[in-house]
Amino acid sequence: MSAGRRAYDLLRGYINREWDRIHGMERLDALQELDANASPRSTSSSPASTDVDSDPPVDLKAHARQILGVSPSAEFEEIRRAFERLSRRSDPSNFTEGTPEAAHAADILKKVNWAYRQLTDDVDAMEKRFKSLEIE
After folding, report:
1. Residue 10 in 3-state DSSP?
2. What digits encode the pLDDT tens for the residues 56-79?
3. Are 95 and 11 spatial neighbours (Cβ–Cβ below 8 Å)?
4. What's the pLDDT tens digit per position in 109-127?
């Protein structure tokens, strides 16, 4: 087996594993949301109580940390390293164009980019730029 083919197979396996992990998280979130909405609501005669939906707030930052696989106490450096690792591995150009693996990789890359933006929104742009420099 050639080195190129082996690398392709390893990347394909990694992308499929990450896809299953992220897809499973979405399924779990959807099931939790269904369970929360399926619980019996209090029946009140006031029309104002039926108009207001009491959904629990969604913690986007916790979901983003779960996608990147970082801890809640992760610093910018750890978030950046996780983002770079995942975005490099899930780059659709690593796969043959038009294959299901390339489509999965593109979906994973979108979610990784979203998670990185969520976790670094409060970081100053100048701080991001200087902390991302790698000086040897």
Report:
1. helix
2. 556 888 888 888 889 988 888 899
3. yes
4. 999 999 998 888 877 667 6
